[in-house]
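Run folding on both entries below.
>entry_1
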Amino acid sequence: MNKLKNKIIKTINLKKKFITVEKFIQISMYDKKDGYYRNKIPIGKNNDFITSPEITQLFGEMIGLYIINYWKKYLKKEFNLVELGPGKGTLINDLINISNKFPNYLKHLNISMFEINKKLIKIQKKNLKENANKINNLNWIDNLTNLTNKDTVFIANEFFDCLPIRQGFILDKKYFENIVKFDQKKEIFFFDKIKLKKDSFIAKKIKKLYQLSNLKEGNIVEIESKSEKYIQQIAKIMIKTKSLFILIDYGNYISSGISTIQSIKNHKKTNIFDNIGNQDLSHMLDFSYYTNIFKLMGLKVYGPYSQRNFLNSLGINILKNKIIKNLTLKEKKYIESGVNRIIDKNGMGQIFKILIISSHKLSNYE
């Protein structure tokens, strides 16, 4: 039997014959020994899914130019750039490449890569080898609490969507949480629900989310308890400094009222309970949830904007046309295809959203 599957079954049997959805995702994805994000290489054409930085270099270059402009306008001194879940290091690599044209900016740049996957760290170090000596300080961290209270730019591209979530709903004025059980006879996992006390922490969260998105009874809300811990750590630094957070992920402007958990293997959707520890589990962010959290912490929030609108506003097509001028027809098609894919209004361009969070007012938005 799959080691991780067996571990989940044992955990269910040791508990009250069930575990929360959050616990199921936590073990599947982040178990220290066998979890998917601890041991697997998920990103790439030959793996399970692909991200915007892997599709086209212009994605990282546009984000890089955005940060350079921010630095010129608001910082003009040494600062930290922190990427959460840097994948193969492609985004940071492209960001450094575009920064070569701005030597004064580059010499003030310190980079920290927040990563827990040792296999990915090796790939990141290999991919960043040529650019490593251009940065004052390039390091890897596994804990955000160790960051110094220095002006910081945070980037999170497809980071929060894979963190564990809890699911709950209200029905007949009663509060419920979705759980995972295991049928010993059929040897299968399945979803069920438990009733919650109205004064419990989760029930109160469910009530707030229902009010936030004006949901109807029976609608499912997804509680980002793990995400909130990271957000609190990031906000703590941002509030004390002049800082920026660029959050990029796939999701909805407001809660859809349904379960958004999905599993992917070899770029195809699968059953959530199949290939445990060997497939990606993620969910769609409710951006109203994140906007509300950051605002309650006293931070300025701009957006969310669709990835298409955001990149178009930065001039991605202008940069693309400049790059392809002297290229071969094959090279032109490759670059145009990549850009079109990440700004496609019927695909990634609309599904992915960008939220800008700042510790201070940004004049270009106000």
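>entry_2
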Amino acid sequence: MVEYNVIANFKIYLEDGNKMPEVKQAIEQMAKVNHFKEEDVGFGIKILRAFVMFNDDQGGMDELEEKIKKIPGVSETQLDDVSRV
């Protein structure tokens, strides 16, 4: 069993807020998701925060960020924060 000791907060900008369920599902298939948080940033633009669990020996945050960017409906992704749990 993998033990997770790092949580990464990815900020994900969506082209269309209606694609939120599909984007969440795609991320859950790629990584161990602790939770999601949806935020309105104004002018009808929504962002999705994905809090993803890792083991610090695994690495792979840059790789995951690139995979998230390729999900249909995602316009931009950035790693916003990383902390130990």
